[in-house]
Design goal:
It comes from Streptomyces corchorusii (Streptomyces chibaensis). This is Lysophospholipase. The structure is a single chain. The protein is mainly alpha-helical. Helix content is 41%, strand content 9%. The strands form two sheets. It has a three-stranded parallel sheet with strand order 3-4-5, with helices on both faces. A two-stranded antiparallel sheet has the order 1-2. α4 crosses α6. The protein is globular, with a radius of gyration of 17 Å.
Amino acid sequence: MGSGRDFLGAFFDPDGPDVVFRDAEAQRLYRRFLDALGAPSLDRLTVPLVCTFGLSAHTIATRENWAVHRDARGAYDPGFLGGDLFAALVRAMAGGALAFYEHAVGLGLRVLALMPPQRVPAMSDPAVFFAAQRVLRAELAARGVEIVDLRARVTDRSGLQRPAFSAADDPIHGNLAFGRLLVADLLDRGL
């Protein structure tokens, strides 16, 4: 439907038992998806909703976003990345996505969120990336979203995605092997 960065902020409006995406192309694709499933609105889905909205932690972790929180040496105050201010900032940055999940779960849907590939591009701060994921995962779980998390199966000791599961030609996405693992996990969950 679009780039991950497009689904962090205010990207939709609740519409009773449905949603309206603010981007015309996203709305067109969404309606086409519902029509293919014979669902007149989001609440009428008869299959689980699998989603990645808000989980592009590399965007949240863009280095420039966090420069003001570093000291002269470039370090964060101890406890900052695990603290309330950091969590509030991440929640604000991903507020639209969190509202979407809350709305979908509130409609009675089974909602699954896919943790993204553990790839941190050069523009992003790895410490913020991992800390933001912890916040987002906790926020989704608190909203009743099931988390699909393959990190233990696809990462190395550093916590980064192993090359065997990484797209060779870009610094963010997983490859077909990663996708196969996701699909297998979803099938194991009864989808």
